[in-house]
Amino acid sequence: WTCLTAGTIGPVTPNSGQRGTIVQISGQRLRGGSTAVSQVLLGGVPVVSIESENDTVVVVQAASGANSTSNDIVIVGRSGSLVTGSGLWTYLVDSVVSSIAPTF
To answer: What is the DSSP string of 18-67?
Structure first.
């Protein structure tokens, strides 16, 4: 058994968005000692996909977070390890097209 230094989440770009937003999460030891990232939650909502990941950068596509009440980011490693960043993400209301002008 080995005790590992906890991972940290640093800059998140962008730090707010809605469904479909591509989000880059930077930090240190993001895999939490695991060999890969298995899940990412933005504001408590599982992302649509993990586009790429390594121990210092994870790129994800945000899901719809209309009911999100959290601003935390949680990265889950394949071993079950958790790397958490508090207050780093805000979901925006999903856009809705209500009309198109001019009409032809």
So the answer is: -TT-EEEEEEESTTTTSSSEEEEEETTEE-SEEEEE-SSEEEEE----TT
